[in-house]
Amino acid sequence: MAALDGIDVLWRYRFTEEEGNEAAWGLAYTTESGYSKSKSSETTVTKDGTVVTPGTVETTASATTLYKVGDTRIDELEEKGIDAGKRMQLWRISTKEVGAGENASKYKAKYFEGYLTTFEPTDNAEDKVEYTLEWSIESTGKSGYATLVIDESDGGDYAFKDTVKVEAAP
User: How far apart are CA 24 and CA 166, in angstroms?
Assistant: First the structure.
């Protein structure tokens, strides 16, 4: 068994309001991505020793990407994600872990819903234009299997959703 390389983990994104209109998409030239969970705790000193009361889990997702000339997704993230505060869907997909049975054509994934909370472009004279993005995630994410479409251009509780276009119910 081999360790999973970072290049084999892809992220896909979509504005929740667009799930009936388009498949999830990737960001071109992503150099780094990931998610993090943290939990604070409160310690109470008693005569019998300390008692620890854990807090709730806080989850964030992040990505660093270079700007691809002509790419409109960065503009959309700024206008709809930061400025308008639209809810987003995010998938972390492992391309080396293929499902079985009903998930045979899908890949192991983690699904999140949340809001883009950091949008930071950096325009260094000696480097490429880079964007640092961060999402505050509601709940802790859901595990499942996602369809991975390779792009040529490369709050509450929720159920795992796939990356495909969601068809309207009859």
Answer: 10
